[in-house]
Amino acid sequence: MDLDLSAAESFRAEVRHWLRAHVPATPLPSLETGEGFAAHRAWERELHAARLSVVSWPEEYGGRNATPLEWLVFEEEYYAAGAPGRVGQNGVNLLAPTLFRYGTPEQLARVLPPMASGEVIWAQAWSEPGAGSDLASLRATATRADGGWLLNGQKTWSSRAAFADRGFGPFRSDPEAERHRGLTYLMFPLDAPGVTRRPIGRIDGKPAFAELFFDDVFVPDRDVIGDPGEGWRVAMSTTGNERGLTLRSPGRFLAAADRLVELWRERGDASDTALRDRVADAWIRARAYRLKGFETISRTDDIGAESSVNKVFWSELDVALHETALDLLGPDGELAGEWLEGYVFSLAGPIYAGTNEIQRDVIAERVLGLPRAGR
Amino acid sequence: MRFVLDAEQRLFGETLDKLLTEAAPFGVARDWAAGRHEPGLALWRSLAGAGVLALAVPESAGGAGPLPVELVTAFHELGRHGVPGPYAETVATAVLLGRLPGGSPASAWLPAIADGTAVVSLALPPAVPYALDADVAGLVLTVDGQELRAAVPGEARTSLDPARRLFAVTPGEVIAEEAAAAAAEGYDMGALVCAAQLVGLGRRLLEVSVDHVRTRRQFGRPIGEFQAVRHHLANALVGLEYARPLVHGAALSYGTPDFARDVSAAKVSAAEAAYAAARIALQVHGAIGYTDEYDPSLLIRKARALHSAWGSPAAHRARVMSALA
């Protein structure tokens, strides 16, 4: 497919103009704090009022039917403007695509608009104490009840769950079935009777994720996504989004790489060619990710397991880019600030959304065609 | 703008792949290394017949170019098959001659480059200090400041890649004045097609390695079942998958002010990805990969040689940074 970059330029100009007028002059408090979470939610409301919170969605749900190219352009402008992190991203990037594929019209109409406005912020609840990389060993249960299901058990490492409103994830609905079979994908309220959430401080102490305990939490049938028992298939449709372009768009890395070059200009020692080369590499890799993004949206086939190639690339790029910035800052690198916040965030990248070791297994088996193997 | 090849470009690549598979180029490379040039020159004429060299020659001089996307498509295949010969040098020279101001007698070489009757080599010190295969080239050039000069081949130098026969040169008679800008463009195109060649040869080394680990058994099972081996190969793929869009993207920026910067980004990434693939290929093959007789070891050696040909990664990183900061 031919990609006409100029077709998105008037959209780019509109987005840039709006962001210039609206992006907060001083950064919002970290979205991993109660105060910051509220501030970021308010920002989502403002974006939504301009119909910029979910540009690629259909208009009826608050979007503007943006093409994939326009979405990439939006993301470039968004991060170049230094706009706030997206507190609703787990819902928008991980739940919404699943709903578009498996949701009922009633679910789409009920769930998407408040997600678009930031009124309801979603947390992903997949991992369990005994089910991390080996997600299929999950044990939290959904038991048939009158008009719905009762959830029991425990989920953990649930990003944003400390302050979010609702969660989604797979539960074991057939106690006789093993592994990938007998799972059901459900949405549930985090403030429902029977839900206990215990925020967990991430490595810098901020409560970026939480443990969730379920004690007979009632979920009505209308909050099941896809067919009961088909939860694995529904979940796997999310992983492509999670590992592919949508969760971490090129714009984010392009903006960070440009800021890194800026930092080099301000603080770099011209004689330190080793550090200069790392700045160059970060910029080159961000550009590679952008071009790869254009390539991906130009393709007519599903990228499938190739999304695992993406995930390894962007997560390692993010760490390397921020490490380079901290090295440039020298003794100031350990001080709290935007670069350090970005660094701490980047460190989780090779772990969440399927560790990079799992991604490499997926690449080996499903992209390169190597034999199936024990780990 | 097309960020993926169109149907015609894909077909062109597939046609070259077929032509090259039939030509058994590893044998051709071994002959070339031993100074038996005829099979390699026959392949040169076939590739010219398929239109590869005309891609670098302007239409006004009997060519079809310069067509950078088609060139990188062709050089990806030349790289995958380890084809010997001064292809990048000839392409760079064609671009250089095509850009000389006001025409020059040397431009008379262009139609012969396009149709494959001329094999050309080029030294562009300091990044390209030696002329590749100067002993078979009908025309050897170098650039000294603003002057394009005939180059007089001297002593042969031995490369790690036995199919790369390098020659020191001394500048001879002046061919054209005010040639520096044309030479810069020739250099950029040479570096670009070298990057494409690197991605192609990295891809081939990954393919060969995948085949090997699927069949080689140790401890009662294919070594491709061992996670340490699988992850090496996955890493090689990640590197190559992100080098390719940079090469394609640089080809698309031909004719814009960003071309030199984008070529450098592509060359850095292609060189690192191909070299990493070569190291991994060597490792997963074990001792057989370290032998002279094993054909893919020709590619392992070429990956290292091309890593620093047409500008080292350090030189290209420096160029990226001077464009940015």
TrEMBL record, chain A:
GO terms for molecular function: flavin adenine dinucleotide binding; oxidoreductase activity, acting on the CH-CH group of donors. Residues 123-217 form the Acyl-CoA oxidase/dehydrogenase middle domain. Its cofactor is FAD. Keywords: FAD, Flavoprotein, Oxidoreductase. Pfam families: Acyl-CoA_dh_1, Acyl-CoA_dh_M, Acyl-CoA_dh_N. GO terms for cellular component: plasma membrane. InterPro entries: Acyl-CoA_Oxase/DH_mid-dom, Acyl-CoA_Oxase/DH_mid-dom_sf, AcylCo_DH-like_C, AcylCo_DH/oxidase_C, AcylCoA_DH/ox_N, AcylCoA_DH/ox_N_sf, AcylCoA_DH/oxidase_NM_dom_sf, Mycobact_Acyl-CoA_DH. The keyword Methyltransferase does not apply. Residues 229-368 form the Acyl-CoA dehydrogenase/oxidase C-terminal domain. Residues 9-119 form the Acyl-CoA dehydrogenase/oxidase N-terminal domain. Coiled coil: none annotated. Belongs to the acyl-CoA dehydrogenase family. This is Acyl-CoA dehydrogenase. It comes from Planotetraspora mira.
